[in-house]
Design brief:
Layout: E1 6-10, H1 13-24, E2 27-30, E3 35-39, E4 45-49, E5 61-64, H2 68-77, E6 81-88, E7 91-97, E8 103-109
Helix pairs in contact: 1-2
Length: about 110
C-alpha cells in the first residue's frame, strides 16, 4: 500500500488558503463549513476544521524543493514561522508552522 491522501487540521480556512496558495501555489475546494481539499501539491489532501492547534511531535509532512532558500523565503513571505533548520548526509531542510500550527518541513538534496 502507498500513502494516497494527507489531511491536516485547520483553525481558519481563509488563512490556510492564503498561506499555502502564496507559498506553494496550491489550489483549494471547500466542501461545506468543515472541510477543504487541496490539490496541485504533489499529493492531494485536505484540511478539516479544528478548534485547537495540533501538538508538535506527531507525523511530519515533508515537501521536496529544488531551491531550499527560495522555498524558505516563500514560506516566510506567506506568514509561516521557521522553527528549525538542519543539515544531514545528503541534504538539508527546515521545519515551519502554518497559520493553524501544523508543523511541516521542506528539504533539498545536496
Amino acid at each position: 500500500m502507498k500513502i494516497d491522501y494527507v489531511e491536516m487540521p485547520a483553525l481558519d480556512f481563509g488563512a490556510m488558503k492564503a498561506f499555502y496558495g502564496a507559498a506553494f501555489g496550491w489550489d483549494f475546494e471547500e466542501w461545506g463549513d468543515e472541510y477543504m481539499s487541496f490539490s496541485n501539491s504533489g499529493l492531494e489532501g485536505g484540511f478539516r476544521k479544528a478548534d485547537t492547534s495540533p501538538p508538535r511531535g506527531g507525523s511530519l509532512v515533508i515537501l521536496l524543493a529544488e531551491d531550499l532558500d527560495a522555498a524558505e523565503k516563500a514560506v516566510t513571505a506567506a506568514g509561516g514561522d521557521i522553527i528549525e533548520r538542519h543539515e544531514f548526509p545528503g541534504g538539508r531542510r527546515f521545519h515551519f508552522t502554518d497559520p493553524s500550527g501544523n508543523e511541516l518541513a521542506i528539504w533539498t538534496k545536496t
